[in-house]
Write a structure and sequence with these properties.
By secondary structure, the protein is of the alpha+beta class. It has helices at 6-18, 55-62, 67-72, 99-114; strands at residues 22-27, 32-34, 43-45, 49-54, 81-89, 118-123. The strands form two sheets. Strands 1-4-5-6 form a four-stranded mixed β-sheet. The chain has a two-stranded antiparallel ribbon with strand order 2-3. Helix 4 links the parallel strand 5 (81-89) and strand 6 (118-123). The longest helix has 16 residues, at 99-114. The relative contact order is 0.21.
Length: 129
């Protein structure tokens, strides 16, 4: 699957591939265009992952557990599954300092939540190491 970061995205793929709560995942699943009033061009995003995972793993991530820990310590229970759209960030990615980029992530959260999916920004360290 395509990935831009060995230290972030590739490691997350390896974890998702073996974690039992994961039903399926897809790298760079789609293009999201966000039209913003007052801007001539949309904000464009290609999320790193879409993962279908047991709801209990999502709750673990919401409680602050890192991605790897939340997936590897959640037993597969045959329960409800949730779609989570992930953006993987490494320390080398300085886009988080860009106000337009932060706006894009905030708006993506609203859009995905409206569609019934979770949107999470996952820090590559220390969880993915």
């Amino acid at each position: 699957m395509p990935h831009e970061s060995v230290g972030g995205e590739l490691r997350a793929m390896c974890i998702a591939e073996v974690a039992t709560p994961v039903r399926r995942f897809l790298a760079q699943p789609h293009r999201l265009e966000i039209m913003v009033s007052g801007r001539s061009r949309p904000l464009i995003s290609f999320p790193d992952f879409a993962v279908e995972v047991e709801a209990s793993a999502v709750r673990n991530m919401d409680k602050g557990r890192n991605f790897a820990n939340a997936l590897m310590t959640t037993a597969q229970s045959g329960g409800r599954f949730r779609t989570v759209i992930l953006e993987i960030k490494t320390d080398a990615d300085h886009r988080m300092n860009d106000p337009d980029y932060r706006l894009k992530l905030q708006l993506a959260t609203v859009i995905y939540n409206g569609l019934g999916a979770e949107f999470m920004v996952v820090n590559a360290e220390p969880g993915l190491a």
